[in-house]
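Support request from a user on the community tier.

User writes: "When I paste my structure tokens into the form, the page sometimes reloads and wipes my input. The last time it worked, I copied everything first. Here is what I submitted, just in case something in the input itself triggers the reload:"
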């Protein structure tokens, strides 16, 4: 069995927390302030002797071991029947939705590229911003698709015009 070496400050903080606050760390020696507190907490945390719930610090199971104390037994949660029913229903819905998505493979007709082509075929055309909103792509990806996939690979002719003070609108000629 290995012994964890603790600084006097770390030992004092863990001992107080285990004796007085049920493992919650809310006391520090008077000489440990500001940056020193953060450094002590960081040291304990890096060695997995303490843990956090996002707001407060608590002695972890390894901290109990380092102090030679028995770990507290986990307390079982009482199951709420309403929550159990809701969770079961949500899991069933998720499983059904996942199965439906997997059964419907993406085809050329329902791809993002096909959607962009449909947008460019409209009489009003489409701006880069509109295509970005529809596809989730970034603007450089849209322009790269115009030059690479559409012009070079598919041989499409992309035209654009810009009204004064407006955005550039792209269309398939």
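"...and here is what came back when it finally went through:"
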């Amino acid at each position: 069995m290995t012994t964890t070496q603790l600084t006097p400050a770390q030992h004092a903080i863990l001992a107080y927390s285990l004796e007085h606050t049920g493992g919650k760390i809310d006391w520090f020696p008077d000489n440990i302030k500001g940056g020193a507190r953060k450094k002590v907490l960081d040291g304990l945390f890096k060695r997995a002797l303490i843990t956090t719930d996002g707001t407060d610090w608590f002695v972890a199971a390894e901290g109990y071991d380092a102090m030679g104390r028995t770990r507290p037994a986990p307390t079982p949660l009482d199951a709420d029947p309403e929550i159990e029913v809701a969770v079961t229903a949500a899991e069933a819905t998720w499983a059904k939705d996942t199965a439906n998505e997997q059964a419907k493979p993406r085809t050329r007709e329902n791809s993002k590229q096909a959607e962009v082509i449909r947008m460019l075929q409209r009489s009003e055309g489409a701006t880069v911003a509109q295509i970005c909103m529809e596809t989730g792509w970034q603007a450089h990806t849209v322009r790269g698709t115009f030059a690479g996939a559409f012009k070079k690979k598919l041989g499409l002719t992309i035209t654009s015009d810009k009204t004064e003070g407006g955005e550039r609108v792209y269309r398939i000629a």
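Agent notes: The reload is a front-end session timeout and is unrelated to the input. The longest helix spans residues 81-103. The first strand starts at residue 24 and ends at 25. Escalated to web team.
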